[in-house]
Amino acid sequence: MLTYVEINRLEGNEDIELPRKMSELASGFDLYAAVQEELVLEPGKRCLVPTGFAIAMPAGLEAQIRPRSGLALKHGITCLNTPGTIDADYRGEIKVLLINLGEEPFTITRNERIAQMVFQAVPEVELKQVDQLSETVRGAGGFGHTGR
Ligand SMILES: O=c1ccn([C@H]2C[C@H](O)[C@@H](COP(=O)(O)OP(=O)(O)OP(=O)(O)O)O2)c(=O)[nH]1
Ligand SMILES: [Mg+2]
Fold first, then answer.
1. Which residues line ligand 1 (CB under 6 A)?
2. What is the pLDDT of residues 41-85, one digit of tens each?
3. Are 92 and 50 in contact (CB under 8 A)?
4. Distances, alpha carbon 20 to alpha carbons 23, 80, 86, 94, in Å
């Protein structure tokens, strides 16, 4: 089923590409940097990169902002808060929190693809407080208790 998500290009970003799938069955819409000309991200530093657009999706969806593997592999550039969460009721500009985990400064240029946005269904959940939880074999074991 096709779902329509409204997208609004923000003023001053007429030259910035709107998010786009780069192949027919791609999961993510690639996001383009709406930085002024260039932005240099030094090793170990983070920055919030504007994208020049806002969206409105129907209730029951979220958007996740995920890194691009090529930038991660070649330059150590990733999203610090990956996956970034875009709430269905958010109407502000979508921004990408990048961090440079590489050894070299990385230059972000205007209209460069810096991350991708994947839409996901969010189930309707309500938390119900109880005195005792249902039992399982795992129980409270976690954090590697099954071995390395
Ligand atoms: O990578 C991101 C993450 C978040 N947002 C926007 C959309 C999201 O709906 C809002 C809030 O994000 P989040 O809930 O992750 O941040 P918070 O620190 O909990 O802020 P808030 O108190 O505003 O919810 O910020 C982005 O544009 N990019
Ligand atoms: Mg929040």
1. 65, 81, 84-87, 90, 94-95, 97
2. 999 999 999 999 999 999 999 999 999 999 999 999 999 999 999
3. no
4. 9, 22, 17, 14
Domain map of the chain by residue range? Answer: 6-121
Dist. CA 27–CA 35, nearest whole Å: 25
Q: Does residue 1 surpass a pLDDT of 90?
A: no
Which class is domain 6-121? mainly beta
Q: Token pair of 77, please? A: 């550039």
* Burial classification of residue 131, based on how many CB atoms lie within 10 Å of its CB (0-12 exposed, 13-18 middle, 19 or more buried): exposed
| Annotated binding residue 87 | yes
The phi-psi region of residue 60 (left if phi > 0; otherwise alpha if psi is between -120 and 50; otherwise beta) is left
Closest CA to 67 of 55, 46, 82: 82
Helix (H) / strand (E) containing 107: strand 106-109
**Protein residue with its CA nearest to atom 23 in ligand 1:** 90
Ligand nearest to the Cα of 78, by number: 1
